[in-house]
Amino acid sequence: MKTQSQPATRPALDGARIEPRFPLVVDVTVRSRTCGVLTGYTADISESGISAMLKIDVPLSEIVELNFTLPIGQVKVHAIVRQREAFRYGFQFLASAAVQEIIRTACRQLSVERNLSAGL
Description:
Blueprint: E1 6-7, E2 22-23, E3 27-32, E4 36-45, E5 49-54, E6 63-70, E7 73-85, E8 88-95, H1 97-117
Antiparallel strand pairs: 1-8, 2-4, 3-4, 3-6, 4-5, 5-8, 6-7, 7-8
């Protein structure tokens, strides 16, 4: 039985972030129906999305495939382009439960690493 992917979470009504962001700078490949295959690098990640720096315009609301590496391994996930500011794009994950769990685990690991480096 195939289930449709849903956004990882719903955005807050007041524009506030639901989950914390964690710095993550890795290469990313974006597969777009309108732009083809693009490469760039990520800036940060949360459980619901990721931001990336790209040199070519990707239309807002387009569903793309993202490929990038987390500390716990390679990830391939569909996402919707939610925002753009200059060359920085915000993507909201459209992940299966299995991929969401991988992203959640990676964010927890990044949170622990951030707290350790801050001396907490």
